[in-house]
Every structure is written in C-alpha cells, then in structure tokens.
Specification:
- By secondary structure, the chain is mainly alpha-helical.
- It folds into two domains: 96 residues, no CATH class; 31 residues, no CATH class.
- Helices cover 50% and strands 5% of the residues.
- It has four helices and two strands.
- It has a two-stranded antiparallel sheet with strand order 1-2.
- Strand 1 and strand 2 form a beta hairpin.
- The relative contact order is 0.09.
- The C terminus is likely disordered.
Length: 147
C-alpha cells in the first residue's frame, strides 16, 4: 500500500529528528552516542548497551500487550525508542567490526539502486549485495564475518 510506504518513510524522518533532539540531552557534540557508549564503563560493548536499552522499551511494550495500559510513556514512544536504539546499535556494531556500512542518500529501487550507496572501490561492503530486479537483493557473501 502506498500510504503505508509513505508513512514508513515519514516515520524514518521523524526518528532522525527525534535522535537529533535527544542527542542534545544525552550525547556530546563530538560523540552523539555518549550515553550508549557509557556501557563500556561496565565492560559491555556499546552495541550491546544499545540492545539493553532497547530491551527496556520492549519490556514496556510487553507489559502494554498484557495489561492494555502504561503509566508513564505512550506506546508509540516505546516503538520509536526501540527503532532508534536499533539504528544506534547497528552503527556501533559496524564500528566495532570495522565495517563502513551506511546508505548515503535516498534509494530508488525503480532505477536499480542497491541497498548500499557506495561502489566496490569506495565501499567494500557494497560488493556483497547484488540487486535482482527492482526490489529483491541476494547476498553473495556473508555480510559480517563469522566469529
């Protein structure tokens, strides 16, 4: 459905704005994920710290699913926070693995754009994905090395 897709992309924009707004309270100018990276002080990798924070929000949604109400935060806020923590976790995971990752601009699958915006010369991860048709992607190699 077109409206679903439009709303999806609108929410992605809202999440970026939410992150930028909250970063002013939680982050530092040169370290926007300072609060999440604080997990390192406890011996926990930052991307795992993001998962812990997302789990708190998931627990809140599980309570809502069981009870039908929340006392202090809107359900929508918890969904948004989980999405933002997932993205922060992905960025921190990519950094921990030395991955470049990332989409540089809007993707137009009708023009054959792939998942990653780089080329094999500028972004070694882009060679891992091969576009098939206008919307499907096939992994040609594992995205992340096995540990």
């Amino acid at each position: 459905m077109v409206k679903d897709n439009e709303r999806f992309h609108a929410i992605l924009g809202e999440l970026g704005a939410l992150h930028d707004k909250k970063m002013k309270d939680y982050g530092e100018e040169d370290n926007p994920f300072a609060n999440v990276r604080g997990s390192e002080e406890w011996g926990i990798e930052p991307w795992i710290g993001a998962l812990v924070r997302a789990t708190d929000k998931l627990k809140r949604l599980q309570k809502y699913a069981r009870v039908g109400k929340l006392a202090n935060e809107a359900v929508e806020d918890s969904f948004r926070d989980i999405a933002v923590y997932a993205i922060i976790g992905l960025v921190l995971y990519e950094q921990s693995e030395g991955s470049l990752g990332g989409v540089v601009g809007p993707i137009d699958p009708d023009k054959g754009d792939g998942l990653l915006a780089g080329t094999p010369e500028t972004d070694p991860w882009s060679r891992l994905l091969t576009p098939i048709g206008s919307r499907r992607l096939v992994m040609s190699e594992p995205m992340y090395p096995q540990r």
